[in-house]
Design brief:
Layout lengths: L16 H15 L5 E2 L16 E4 L12 H6 L12 H5 L9 E6 L5 E4 H5 L5 E8 L4 E11 H8 L7 E6 L19 E5 H4 L5 E6 L2 E2 L9 E3 L12 E7 L6 H5 L23 E4 L9 E2 L23
Parallel strand pairs: 2-5, 3-12, 6-13
Antiparallel strand pairs: 1-2, 3-4, 5-6, 6-9, 7-8, 7-12, 9-10, 9-11, 13-14
This protein binds ligand MTE.
């Protein structure tokens, strides 16, 4: 990653949690308790959310302690090098991506191999909303109401063979739609990967939307991964291919600079990046004077710790 000084995001427009909660409960009662409906059209989020509304059910088990960032924060401060290396580039340049029609190729050690239209791949999966923190390796973070479904549900349906020990996710490669791919800042296409037990963890999530709307292009339309206990770069965007593998895949950031980026990339305040501390983070939208937040092991999602018991996390960073 090229670490330029990031553009400071707009001043704090975060909705106080009490307001978020109150509005959320109004919406819930309008929908009927537990009903499946469009997740609150979040008119209270700064900047009006745009895009098609998704039918999804809010899952209260995730995100109760955090106040989501605004729509503007989430959609104008992005890392998506296929559209440029500045945080503001993806929002400006991602209009050239055509997220429909879209297909995804499933390959490797799996029964259901082939190329599937995205709608067919998604059809059996009811959508839910989960509020997850995203903590970037660059030491900033956001809180985002994602819409999607557990990755484990998709994997079970695809039926990996007993040889499948890893899963790789590959982003579209098309320099016409993705102008950043005309340059060599990374080796394209972007590839990320998980060990099978990580991919099957109930927190690992396939997102198709945020704030109750389809994903905007800059956020990884039409399908992206969200792995909330890992640094943001594990969350591959605009996925066109999923491979089930016996061996770990070569992942983009680890290949580009193995000293700085490992395969696991678990959020870990105890292991500094070679060029800066990972002990704290800056919550986007808090303004320049907001106190920095202590970064928590696994980004606070400590239920994943047992996946790594016996693994030296300073070596396998
Ligand atoms: N996926 C692709 N294809 N290209 C990228 O450059 N950047 C990663 C990740 N997924 C990236 C990507 C990084 S470094 C981060 S922090 C997150 O996306 C940022 O997600 P956001 O822009 O939606 O906040």
């Amino acid at each position: 990653m090229r670490y330029r000084r990031a553009d400071e995001p707009k001043g704090s427009e975060i909705t106080p949690e009490s307001v978020w909660t109150a509005r959320r409960s109004v919406v819930k009662s309008l929908l009927g308790a537990g009903a499946i409906g469009a997740v609150a059209t979040p008119g209270w989020a700064a900047g009006s959310p745009t895009g098609r509304i998704l039918e999804a059910k809010h899952n209260p088990a995730y995100g109760a302690e955090d106040t989501p960032n605004t729509w503007d924060d989430v959609t104008t401060y992005n890392n998506f090098y296929e559209f440029g290396t500045d945080k503001s580039d993806p929002a400006r340049n991602a209009g050239s991506l055509r997220p429909a029609p879209w297909s995804v190729t499933i390959a490797g050690e799996v029964q259901q191999r082939g190329t599937f239209a995205l709608e067919d791949l998604l059809k059996p999966h009811p959508l839910e909303e989960r509020i997850y923190r995203l903590r970037c390796v660059e030491a900033w973070s956001m809180v985002i109401p994602w819409v999607g479904f557990p990755l484990a549900d998709l994997i079970k349906r695809l039926q990996p063979t007993s040889k499948a020990k890893f899963v790789a996710f590959t982003t579209l490669k098309d320099p016409v739609q993705m102008p950043g791919q005309r340059g060599g800042v990374l080796d394209w296409p972007y590839v990320e990967g998980l060990r099978m037990d990580e991919a099957m963890h109930p927190l690992a999530f396939m997102a198709v939307g945020l704030y109750g709307r389809v994903l905007p292009n800059q956020s990884g339309a039409p399908l992206r991964l969200v792995v909330p206990w890992k640094y943001g770069f594990k969350s591959a965007k605009s996925i066109v291919r999923i491979d089930f593998l016996e061996r770990p895949p070569t992942t983009t950031w680890a290949a580009s600079n193995p000293r700085e980026y490992g395969f696991f990339a678990n959020v870990n305040p105890a292991v500094d990046h070679p060029r800066w501390s990972q002990k704290t983070e800056r919550r986007i939208g808090g303004g320049v004077f907001a106190p920095r937040i202590q970064t928590r092991p696994f980004n606070g999602y400590t239920e994943v710790a047992s996946l790594y018991s016996g693994l030296d996390l300073s070596r396998w960073f």
